[in-house]
Fold:
Amino acid sequence: MSVKLKDDRRPRLAVTLGDPAGIGPEVILKALADPEVVQDCDVTVIGSRSLLAKIYLNLSDSAECRQILAKPADLSLLNVDLDLDFDNIAVGTGNAASGAASFAYMESAIARTLSGEFDAIVTGPIAKSAWKAAGYDYPGQTELLAERAGVRRFGMLFVARSPHTDWTLRTLLATTHIPLRQVADTLTPQLMSAKLDLLVECLRQDFAIAKPRIVIAGLNPHSGEQGQLGREELDWLIPWLEEERHARPDTILDGPVPPDTMWVKPGQAWFAKGEKASAADGYLALYHDQGLIPVKLMAFDRAVNTTIGLPFIRTSPDHGTAFDIAGKGIADATSMKAALRLAVELANQRINAKV
Structure:
């Protein structure tokens, strides 16, 4: 659902190039060439002007690049000065130089957004290994955003709108980039309450859903089957959920739903128009693959990674740097377009709330 502003101000988006050796610059140039994507917002690209111009020329010469590209000279671009030898940045190969560049773009975007210059940040994909090679040891962009914004409560929400039914899938991860063997020990009632708080707040503030229905996954097969397949549900997950139901009378909480059947109704709502009413407003998955395998099965080319809990909007395409196809002109910009559209929608929602 598109949200229109009550006043004439268009949301201001900062779009970071991501790792310049990856497909970030390509999908950004493709997305910004679409007039329907940029008609309702003011976009400023944050990156290196000379690098973007070079990438544009290379893509323009590519026989495989059939899509229209935005011309860098026509874009509002905030040039980030870097003490780097750009010759060390080669498309298709992430390294310390490309990691330093993408980190600098992020730092600039965050600082300027916190100062009020932008309403939202849309981030191009980065390579964690390149950040580490450059001396920046963060699990990802999400953690850097939270640190610089000074927030301790944050989460990764994946949002996708079905092209078949227009239904919106919203999936929050309780745990993110940790080894599978650590998941059961990391999950606690306190962590689950913090994540549920974030999801409820987001659904109400950013999606205007006053009384949301949220489905919460079980951890074990068949949600433990009365302790036969694991005791986490009996020992704390079910008691925690009962307490949350009493504490949140304006929220419908279903669960813990067995992980193998939790995604049946979302799948039906994604593909069949008559099934939308039976799906929930949000889904809380307990670990990375439990949430993202179904998201990517349904919405691989259009899911958007949204960081919730920040004082501003942040969205990102749900794909990586794809170094193996960088510079070939074949990268799909659908997810980047979706990230831009969602940033506009969410920014409008927050701006309207302040009017």
